[in-house]
Amino acid sequence: MSFMKGDMLTRTRKLVKGLAKAEPVWLKAMERVPPPTFPSPGGKVQKISLPEDVYVQKFFKKHPNSKYHDAIKISSFNPPPARVFGWRVLELKEQGVSEEDAMAVADMEYRAEKKAKKTAYARLKQIARLQRKRPPPNPYPSAIKEIQAEERKHVRAGFFDPEILQIVEKMKAKKGANMQERMRGG
Questions:
Q1: How many Å separate Cα 152 from the centre of its chain?
Q2: Structural element, H or E, at residue 81
Q3: What span, in angstroms and rounded, lies between the C-alpha atoms of 10 and 98?
Q4: Can you tell me whether residue 8 is helix, strand or coil?
Q5: Could you give the CA distance from residue 63 to residue 67 in angstroms, rounded to a whole number?
Q6: In the chain, what's the furthest Cα-to-Cα distance?
Q7: Residues 46 and 25 sit within 8 Å (Cβ to Cβ)
Q8: Where residue 127 falls among pLDDT bands split at 50, 70, 90?
Q9: Rounded distance between C-alpha atoms, residue 67 and residue 73, angstroms
Q10: CB half-sphere exposure, 105, CA atoms < 13 A
Q11: Whether 103 contacts 55, CB under 8 Å
């Protein structure tokens, strides 16, 4: 039905009129009260931009290691640092601070928070060592290490998955047979 133009109601009417389809039960009710039509954007989807997006981009230029944090998760419990930076700059600008000063203050706050998190984790590790316990996992891991930890599961699964091990054995057998064939022929 993709070649037919119109909404679902028009398409169904055409199919029923052409005897290609039996009349559905809902058709008469839908003709009495047709669904609302919404204006289309003209085939182009507009890009959604937020007021802090300019500052998020500037944050990523200044701190390229933070690009691995997903800047889209706006409403999560722990918003990404780039969004927090952008929100803080906008907040300071609303209070009458110049853009350069607002960015400098927000950057200073970001660096101070990052440093405080690192020292807190270092202290946690130190306490764990004194108690002769295993240190807790890093509550503030780098985004790259998080991605690598997730990938590591899949890589390790390749070493122990019986299906993959069977495929590897078949490939080794084929390679061995090809080598023997070359030795005989050469």
A1: 18
A2: helix 81-94
A3: 57
A4: helix
A5: 8
A6: 85
A7: no
A8: very high
A9: 13
A10: 14
A11: yes
- Looking at the whole model, is its pTM more than 0.85? no
Look up residue 51 and give its two tokens: 């007021």
DSSP conformational letter for 107? H
185, two tokens: 């022929």
Q: Decide: helix, strand or coil at residue 21.
A: coil
Structure tokens at 74: 């706006």
7: helix, strand or coil: coil
Contact criterion met (CB below 8 Å) for 95 and 112: no
3-state secondary structure 136-186: CCCCCCCHHHHHHHHHHHHHHHHHHCHHHHHHHHHHHHHHHHHHHHHHHHC
Name the DSSP class of 64.
Answer: G
Q: For 74-113, how does the pLDDT look when each residue is reduced to its tens digit (9 = 90+)?
A: 666 778 888 899 999 999 999 999 999 999 999 999 999 9
First to last CA, the chain: 62
Rg (CA), the chain: 30
